[in-house]
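@channel sequence for tomorrow's demo:
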Amino acid sequence: MNATQLADGLWRWTAAHPHWTAAQETPEGWSRIVACTYFEPPDGGVVLIDPLVPADEAPAFWKALDADVERRGGRVAVVLSNAWHGRSAREMRARYCATVHAHEVAATDVRADITLPFAGDIAELPGGLRAHRIGSCDGGECIIELPAGAGLVFGDAVLGIGGGKVRTLPSSWTPEAGRKTVQARLREELRPLLDAKFERLLVSHGEPVLEGARAAFEDALVQPPKGG
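structure tokens (generated this afternoon):
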């Protein structure tokens, strides 16, 4: 596990995904190490986005998180960016009586005990977060906007490619029907987020962008990435 503090009350941690296989380590696949986000809202409590408990360091992880949850008053909300990122949501609910939030489309697919599904293209979430539905992707994909411009959190729609850059997801990750036009549709759905305030791009897959986030996001929306 690698945990990094990005700002006061904002952390990113990584963990090895238990269902990853070497066959997925391709340009069209995804890496074994995935990222999760910890956020402390101004009004108390803790929000965990796509959380995954690192299996090899679980006791230390739980000890640290228990202390944070107690310090923040015991309230925990889990937000899932899509149906594929149920990860450790069920464990969080059992341990902390956490509420689990995902788009209603994701809630029909994911096995994570969704307690509070939300609907619509834009939804207000606990702690001042906001979910932006991306209809061109499967699984109820949503971009999670953190309050006060802290950042945008991406599940699968946008990936980090290193060097302070991001790309939209490979076309092979999208529904087969209409795949030729999915990149154009995806970029159009993402473009309104340029009107939001954000200092960082926090991705589940790949490296985050912590400086020059707006320019990196704009570049990703200019044209589809090569090979995808």
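heads up for whoever presents: The helical segments are 58-71, 89-96, 104-107, 179-190, 213-222.
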